[in-house]
Amino acid sequence: xxxxxxxxxxxxxxxxxxxxxxxxxxxxxxxxxxxxxxxxxxxxxxxxxxxxxxxxxxxxxxxxxxxxxxxxxxxxxxxxxxxxxxxxxxxxxxxxxxxxxxxxxxxxxxxxxxxxxxxxxxxxxxxxxxxxxxxxxxxxxxxxxxxxxxxxxxxxxxxxxxxxxxxxxxxxxxxxxxxxxxxxxxxxxxxxxxxxxxxxxxxxxxxxxxxxxxxxxxxxxxxxxxxxxxxxxxxxxxxxxxxxxxxxxxxxxxxxxxxxxxxxxxxxxxxxxxxxxxxxxxxxxxxxxxxxxxxxxxxxxxxxxxxxxxxxxxxxxxxxxxxxxxxxxxxxxxxxxxxxxxxxxxxxxxxxxxxxxxxxxxxxxxxxxxxxxxxxxxxxxxxxxxxxxxxxxxxxxxxxxxxxxxxxxxxxxxxxxxxxxxxxxxxxxxxxxxxxxxxxxxxxxxxxxxxxxxxxxxxxxxxxxxxxxxxxxxx
Length: 475
Hints:
By secondary structure, the chain is an alpha+beta fold. Helix content is 48%, strand content 20%.
């Protein structure tokens, strides 16, 4: 094998590799002998088929296998002998080959950059802890009490009003025909809750128990059942009982019903639960600030091919979002060339930080345990009720899928490693401040428009935190 380096620019390398004709012929003949040992042809004993016949019958196929193996082995040798770590799969192009002649090919490869050691002890960072206002805790307790209210049947004769819980029978008809799933008896419905399709509950307000009521509605166009979507319907209803909620007092007795000693214990548990809901957001802010600092302190060359690949993924996601009308207002006024330039900068940042964190994690011998991977697989499986076993097998039998689960775990553990070495100050931050996102927060964030998207997500998360905290706990 002869090798000549034809390009050495930055991270880009190119080699011309020549594999001698004699070496190719020897490997072809050895492979044909191997084939002949088991080949059965009429008139010949196993292992006695003449080489000439073997070449006629199998020569081309064997030559293809030998050439493929030769390229694989020699290209790997080129990299190994020069201690080169490819960033992506090398690009191979056959320059020339004819039977009986040398094999000549070119190999282009981008190598991994050299990354200087980092002294993380010089980094100063904040580790945020959500500071939950007393008002938010009390509001969550109020929701909890509301969700645990009892109802009491109304004995006096009065008409229904919003907020009442009615017990009723109903049967639905479309085009005069009853439809599946449109009938129930002794069904409990809180009027004004929005549990039923628009307009249904409104027509039950101001009614009396025992009366026959005809409710006329139209199913939404996007209704889940295609046979009902957009259809007019009539429901024959009869209310048998009217109930109203009784106020639930926030006191020690209420806390004891939930398995706690006192209202103060319940209040403390509620605060901890809300803090837990915001903990992920606080962690994300700390991580984002760390990544911004790392990006500012490092400016090494990154493989262009990796940037191109990352950019193509980002641009594809943006194009799909644009088709759905889900684009930031700022981006709507920009032409594609400007947007592509901005998104390419994001791709470069992602690749640089990815390589840096990978280097740090490998150097520190950060390990992802089998238990951690198993938990990640189970978390994925839980998203598909009834299909857990299939999902579990899909991941465990697919190395690429397992690698996709390993990567974020490895990254988070590497971030933890850096935070342990850095000068970290614990900072309590009010939730409203934690949710704030402005240009200074966005910095060099990995995702363009992340601040705006994070703000929307954070607002949603805040609502879900209150909702989750207000749910009655079974544990």
